[in-house]
Amino acid sequence: MNFEENIATYFGSTQYPQWSVMGILQYLAEYMDYTSDSKEEISKVLAKHLLHISVGINFKKSAKNKAKKLYAALDTTLSRAEIIQFFDEQDVRFYKVSHVNLQMCSKIKMLTCMLYHRNFTRSMLKRV
What we know:
With 128 residues, the chain is mostly helical. It has 6 helices and no strands. Helix 1 packs across helix 2, helix 1 packs across helix 3 (39-55) and helix 3 (39-55) runs antiparallel to helix 4. The longest helix has 47 residues, at 81-127. It starts with a helix and ends with a helix.
């Protein structure tokens, strides 16, 4: 999964006063499917970007300060109930999407088999 690119895009497209961990998670959910299994990877990539912004020369002082605050509170923020609930909702959403995709694949396989057998039967009847 490409968290790196999507998190960079979030910071580039969102005004710094609106930056938040929940905002980032919601942004990611709009553009990619992920579950709570990705929490550690998201945390690492997010921390990397926040550190980069906090020391970067291309950012306003207030944006740097916001990045420093988010970085300092990152572990605590990711342990908050609403963040855990959001990840739980992502798990359910991912399961539903995966389940629907699995059902679709099963239906496609079934139809493919039916068509194969129908065509096979026709070709055998033509031989007789």
